[in-house]
Write a structure and sequence with these properties.
The complex is a heterodimer of chains A (about 70) and B (about 260).
Chain A (H helix, E strand, L loop, with lengths): L7 E6 L2 E6 L4 H8 L7 E4 L2 E3 L14 E9 L2
Chain B lengths: L4 E3 L2 E3 L3 E4 L6 H11 L3 E8 L9 H5 L5 E4 L7 H15 L3 E4 L12 H13 L3 E6 L3 H9 L6 E2 L13 H10 L5 E3 L5 H10 L3 E4 L1 H4 L4 H21 L24
Parallel strand pairs in B: 3-4, 3-10, 4-5, 6-7, 7-8, 9-10
Antiparallel strand pairs in B: 1-2
Helix pairs in contact in B: 1-9, 3-4, 5-6, 7-9
The chains are: A mainly beta (about 70), B alpha/beta (about 260).
């Protein structure tokens, strides 16, 4: 059985459909969005991912990702 | 610490909390934050936008002694609020969360049922929970039982500047409450903050009244002074109010020529 490597992956990031090459990391997703990974919190398919697990995130085709940051508010 | 505000096991030397919304720019917001002397400052959550908004981290981190209080604004259900709180904790490292669930944008009044459920779950998760609530003494007790660090009843609708419309309910709520009561929303003038403190509130949270003032930093300082004055008056013990006059000078009759 031959390994097949996905050439690209479709992800919905902050409501936007992105097609990223290979198997994108969180850093790749952040870069594409112009977001600072240091100041992002991650919601993956509505589950909050703790900061300590950021390096280990493996996205799958069709995942919904929300990158959230702190903004001004009352 | 003398007369510290005790909140969820933490001590603060200011009873004025401020919000960071509605300021014209980050510089105006940080100037007001400094002038307010506030130790607890609320922030909101938002998705990253390509058109990067002003960065809040650096300017707020540069103010010594600040603790961030992320809010759950935008949440319409307990599930969403819990998720927002967890995101806020990841971002801020703060144990505090201001739970606000107000599904109707016209009046922004809190949903008490969803708020209670969110608070119950977040308190179990170890958050220091500060719920924004209607000025309902019964709900406040239920939230206290659920493990909230404080309750934050509204004075009037968010951003309305209508002051302490809920004064009668606030009095009852304060009488019964075993956790600090912090009036949140609706204050317009420092005198209203002083009145809330005189009534026995443990603190007040002010955002719009400072943010949209002509001089936000000066208004922040005015609110800080008013909160201190109101608190000092509360501790000093206000006199009872009566139906009729009570003379402060002897009512001598010699001026009328009728010596007794």
């Amino acid at each position: 059985m031959a390994f097949t490597f996905a050439e690209s992956m479709k992800l919905t990031v902050n409501g936007e459909t992105l097609e990223l090459p290979g198997e994108p990391s969180l850093a790749d997703v952040c870069r594409t969005l112009g977001a600072n990974a240091e100041r992002a919190a991650v919601l993956l398919n509505d589950t909050v991912i703790p900061r300590t697990q950021y390096d280990r995130i493996r996205f799958r085709e069709g995942d919904r990702i929300d990158l959230v940051t702190l903004v001004a508010g009352g | 610490m003398k007369d510290a505000l005790l909140l969820g096991g933490y001590e603060f030397d200011s009873r004025l909390m401020i919000g960071t919304g509605k300021f014209s720019d980050v510089a105006a917001m940080t100037a007001a934050a400094r002038a307010s002397g506030a130790r607890l400052v609320t922030v909101a959550l938002s998705r990253f936008h390509r058109a990067a908004s002003d960065d809040l981290y650096q300017p707020l981190a540069a103010i010594p002694g600040l603790t961030l209080v992320p809010n759950t604004s935008g949440a319409r259900t307990a599930d969403e609020a819990v998720r927002a709180a967890m995101l806020g904790r990841e971002l801020s490292g703060s144990p505090f969360v201001k739970v606000e669930i107000h599904p109707n944008p016209r009046h922004l009044l809190p949903d008490p049922i969803e708020t209670h459920e969110a608070c119950r779950r977040l308190a179990k998760e170890g958050f220091a929970v500060l719920p924004y609530i209607p000025a309902d003494p019964v709900l406040a007790k239920r939230l206290e039982d659920a493990g909230c660090a404080a309750v934050m009843p509204l004075g009037s609708a968010i951003g309305s500047g209508r002051g302490l419309q809920t004064a009668e309910m606030l009095r009852l709520l304060i009488q019964d409450s075993l956790v600090p009561v912090i009036v949140d929303a609706g204050l317009r003038a420092p005198s209203e903050a002083a009145a809330a403190m005189e009534m026995g509130c443990a603190g007040v949270l002010v955002n719009s009244a400072i943010a949209v003032a002509k001089n936000p930093a000066a208004m922040a300082a005015a609110f800080a002074a008013a909160v201190q004055a109101g608190r000092a008056a509360r501790l000093a013990g206000l006199m009872d109010c009566g139906e009729s006059a009570s003379p402060t000078s002897p009512l001598t009759s010699f001026l009328g020529g009728q010596e007794a």
